[in-house]
Specification:
- The chain has about 400 residues and is an all-alpha fold.
- The protein has 14 helices and no strands.
- α1 packs across α2, α2 (about 65-105) runs antiparallel to α3 and α5 packs antiparallel against α8.
- It is globular, with a radius of gyration of 26 Å.
- This is Glycerophosphoryl diester phosphodiesterase membrane domain-containing protein.
- Keywords: Membrane, Transmembrane, Transmembrane helix.
Length: about 400
């Protein structure tokens, strides 16, 4: 069973702060000014247990030093996905545009024929399926690329775009499996709350006030409140799974078990830091979207002014194309931020937990080519040294 190395006792000696992990003085260093020597820092973090500042600083440093690999990969993937979906929508629209215009132009009380509805529903279903598959592959590649870059950033080593792509593609499907299993943790409260919201919207639109709607809304809200805390607890336990897949080459199920093992004893800290990282990314993404939305308003105003009294769907799309493009670009930049920064923080938390519980510092120091200062305990798990 892993033991918590931390800063004091056992793992680094018996004196305060480890009795000399970074030297031989009474305060962990050689005699001199303060008697303390900072831990080696070959990359974006010091090779020691990480505090909140170390984790956030390491994430920002990684984005600054490896921005081409991180943002280039994310931009290429999400941008390619957006272009693919745009081409698919254009092809689908050209195939069913006549039927769509007939359905839109129906008078009140008229029903659309099945000959028009079936192709529209089929095209919509194909687009939804294509979007799900595309986003699953793209998200898997991004979630595999971020830990791949971070693995080298911790050691201070360079990595090329091609190397990131090769390593990410090699782990993409296990990462997708880990993401799906992680998402299933929160599916029950999400479904309950979604059902309650849809029922409330339908009741408001139809002006229905039956007892069945009230019961459905109450059951959905109460069920979400009951199952929500359990989902949050489970999600925090398995949030390190994508990093485990990339760093250790584990499969999806084994990665979830490994994540739960690493989180044990530090749940509140990991929950707080991941929540903070998610909020920071959400705020940054929202701020980034504002100028794109503002810029998109002007072509939308110009285009809408040229519309006729009864415009066709094609004319509406053309008139709003400027606003749609600006919105997509803003969403693309926001998605890059929200997919990169929180995963960097999660990956650094994974490294921190292994430093604290498995004495990973000597292994990192050896891989980085820096001296592992101070005494270290025997490796855990029956004398098997941890791997990086």
């Amino acid at each position: 069973m892993a033991h918590d190395a931390g800063w004091g006792g056992g793992a680094y000696g018996g004196a305060p702060y480890g009795g000399g992990p970074y030297g031989g003085g009474p305060y962990g260093g050689p005699p001199g000014w303060g008697g303390w020597v900072p831990p080696p820092k070959p990359g974006v973090i010091p090779l020691a247990p990480l505090g909140l500042g170390d984790v956030l600083g390491g994430a920002f440093s990684t984005m600054g030093r490896y921005w081409k690999q991180l943002f280039g990969m994310a931009a290429a993937l999400y941008g390619g996905a957006a272009l693919l979906m745009a081409a698919a929508v254009a092809i689908a629209y050209s195939a069913v545009s006549d039927r769509l215009e007939r359905v839109v132009s129906l008078d009140y009380g008229e029903e659309a024929s099945s000959a028009d509805l079936v192709p529209l529903v089929t095209a919509g279903g194909v687009l939804v399926l294509l979007g799900i598959v595309t986003m699953a592959i793209v998200s898997g590649l991004v979630y595999a690329a971020v830990p791949t870059v971070l693995q080298e950033a911790v050691l201070g080593r360079p990595i090329t775009f091609a190397a990131v792509w090769r390593k990410a593609w090699a782990r993409v499907f296990p990462v997708i499996g880990a993401l799906i299993l992680t998402a299933l943790v929160a599916i029950v409260p999400v479904l309950l709350l979604t059902t309650a919201l849809i029922t409330a919207m339908v009741s408001a639109i139809t002006m229905a006030s039956g007892g069945g709607s009230a019961i459905a809304i109450s059951v959905g809200v109460i069920g979400a409140l009951i199952t929500g805390p359990l989902a949050v607890w489970l999600w925090t336990k398995v949030c390190l799974a994508p990093a485990v897949v990339v760093f250790e080459g584990q499969g999806p199920v084994a990665a979830l078990r490994r994540s739960a093992q690493l989180v044990r004893g530090d749940w509140w800290r990991i929950f707080g830091i991941t929540l903070l990282a998610g909020l920071m990314a959400a705020v940054a993404g929202y701020v980034v979207q504002i100028p794109f939305s503002v810029l998109g308003v002007f072509p939308a105003m110009i285009g809408s002014a040229s519309l006729e009294d009864d415009p066709s769907p094609t004319a509406v799309v053309v008139a709003m194309s400027g606003y749609l493009i600006a919105t997509v670009l803003g969403g693309l930049v926001s998605q890059i931020i929200s997919a990169t920064f929180p995963q960097l923080v999660t990956g650094l938390l994974y490294v921190d937990r292994r430093i604290r519980t498995e004495d990973l510092v000597p292994v990192l120091a050896e891989a980085a080519g820096v001296p592992a200062q101070g005494p270290h305990p025997p490796p855990p798990y029956g004398g098997v040294a941890p791997q990086w």
